[in-house]
Amino acid sequence: MKEKFGDKLEVLAFPCNQFGFQEWLNGQEIIDCMTHVRPGKGFEPKFTVLEKTAVNGNDGHAVFKALKASLPFRNTPVSYEESNPFGTQGDGYFKKINYSPFSIADVIWNFEHFLISPDGTPYKRYHPKKSYDEIPADIESILA
Predict the structure, then answer these.
(1) Domain assignment present for 89
(2) Count of domains observed in the chain
(3) pTM recorded for the entire structure
(4) Which residue pairs, CB below 8 angstroms and at least 24 apart, start in 124-129?
(5) Which residue range(s) make up the domain with 37?
(6) Which of 11, 29, 53, 112 is the most buried (most CB within 10 A)?
(7) Is residue 108 part of a domain?
(8) pLDDT tens digits, residue range 10-37?
(9) pLDDT digits (tens, 9 = 90+) for 82-138
(10) What CATH code is carried by the domain that includes residue 49?
(11) Does 85 map to a domain?
(12) What is the model's pLDDT at position 26?
């Protein structure tokens, strides 16, 4: 996607270990794992990978506290969330959460996305399993 939008787009990845303890690496180890293990095959991210970050709870990074305050809900109706529990909302996942307090605005799983307009205003929040097709059109809309 970055190729399509060139210098107008910056993608930032914030690795997090608050979802089932899936990110146990730190710093350069995360990049090395992406390159050699998963997805592997010499993968080189075309986005900026930042240090591992807490996104929820008392230790949540200020960036995510501000994003969640501005965009407390994903781009899915409550009925979708109720009938398609995913991530920390899924059966059995609450026992794997390693932060508190809990909030309805919490990031529910890795790969949840936030789109920020060029002026820094949070624009839209995307469910990690449903909405990737909407993102390019939304980027075009805020860049127009």
Answers:
(1) yes
(2) 1
(3) 0.83
(4) 124/71, 124/75, 125/67, 125/71, 125/73, 125/74, 125/75, 126/74, 126/75, 127/74, 127/75, 127/76, 127/80, 127/86, 128/86, 128/87, 129/84, 129/86
(5) 12-143
(6) 112
(7) yes
(8) 889 999 988 877 888 999 999 999 999 9
(9) 776 665 555 655 556 678 888 888 898 888 999 999 999 999 999 887 767 889 999
(10) 3.40.30.10
(11) yes
(12) 93
Instruction: For residues 23 and 40, give the distance between their C-alpha atoms in angstroms, rounded to a whole number.
Output: 16
Let me know if residue 17 belongs to a domain: yes
Rounded distance, CA 140 to CA 40, Å? 31
Asked if 35 contacts 44 with a C-beta cutoff of 8 angstroms, the reply is yes
Quick one: pLDDT at residue 142? 93
What the block records as the tokens of 134 is 């909407």
Both tokens of 83, joined, read 């009938």
Categorise residue 140: left if φ over 0, alpha if ψ from -120 to 50, beta otherwise: alpha
